[in-house]
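Re: the multi-chain job from yesterday

Posting the exact lines I submitted so nobody has to dig through the queue logs.
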Amino acid sequence: MMEFNFVTVLEQWPMLLRGLGLTVTLTAFSAVLGALLGTACAWARLHGGPILKRVVGAYVELVRNTPFIIQLFFIFFGLPSLGLRLSVEVACVLAMVFNLGAYACEIVRAGLQTTPRGQLEAAMSLALTPWQTFSRVVLPPALARIWPALVSQIIIVMLGSAVCGQISAEELSQAANLISSRTFRSFESYIIVTAIYLLLAIALRQLLYWVGPRFIFSSR
Amino acid sequence: MKFKLLSTLAGVLTSAVLSVATPAHAADDSLTSILAKKSIALGVASDFPPYGYMGPDFKLTGVDVATAQLIADKLGVKADFVPVSTPNRIPYLQTKKIDLIVSALGKNPEREKVIDFTVAYAPFFQAVFGPKALSIKSFDDLAGKTIAVTRGTIQDDVLQKVAPPTLKIQRFEDDATTVAAFISQQTQLLATGAAVAAAAVQKNPQVQAEYKLLLKDSPNFIGVRKGETALLTKVNEILRAAKADGTLEKYSQKWLGRGTGVLPD
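And the result, structure tokens for all chains:
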């Protein structure tokens, strides 16, 4: 029978806390920037010129058809050979924003495309400019429709940040790795970190479900 | 029935393997037969720079290979190099496929139970490596620098104990990513084993990395079959002479970029 020893692991709580802090920070930056990038790309794929459509389409295909860890390695290990050296944290945020942007693009586009024709005609008959139509008439209900899917994608990206430990970012899963290699209590470390991720994901989902209808696509 | 046959067969095989792997103390006759054959079988690594590896001319080279060649020359016999790997080298020695293991072999109590060791002939070490332009003379000079290290290794432990707190230690999951971080200049310094650093520098000459600080020493010994006292004594004689006349020092400088230091006798 295996004996558990959670105390040894929990004694390392400052490291867990720092890890949690970095995971939350990375997620916060990449969720906001990624969702904005995704919305911009969705607009571009529907209303942009032919070249812009092509470029955005290529970006979406590139990101959605390659593993996240490879994208991260490319940014961290590959870009310096082109003369662009980023800190670990910036490289992580950039990779996560890039990744979320492509998925969010397709999710938001799905929402935009399901706008009923009548609403567009109504906007036109009110002589709204294309920008007013997009930002006031099309986007808010579209976001309301795809909000659950977008929230799920943000949570996937948050969980995906576990990979950032591979380039030495000391986020939550890297903290678990460090603790397990120092205390040789790997099972306990990973159980604790699993629980933290679970709570974090639930909390994030609740937060976004609360924030969305009130601040992002409020129906007023 | 079938199971019984299988288990009998397995039993026979196991005992056969065991009797091969742990032979009774060998008769002390290897030196005589080496001199009679005029050839010695030397187990060397072929993929472990800078100890034993294929040079650009497809010939084996490195500290181990040079030392092995030296032993053959001093015995006045032909060197017959047999490439060995870390898991198979001790069984090769025990089953007489080779007469000596010269492949960055470290000494530990488990190994001492099954084979004998000569005196040490070359250093093996974990160290801090960095670009020539960066001056690192002591651990205090590491303050404010960044260093790549593989998580949970000896070098990670030692660094944590001796380095100043302002050294930013970036931990990676394996040697390949650790080296990649250093080569792509994401970190200024690299803490790793001598062999890994040598391979990294050899494949990325533009980096201009050199040895800076010693983290941990664990020298290499030559492995001899248990009970081969005559051969052991002879090889020890050769190694001590090579140590005294500076040959081992020269090999170490040439391939490892530092002296042998104090090698345990």
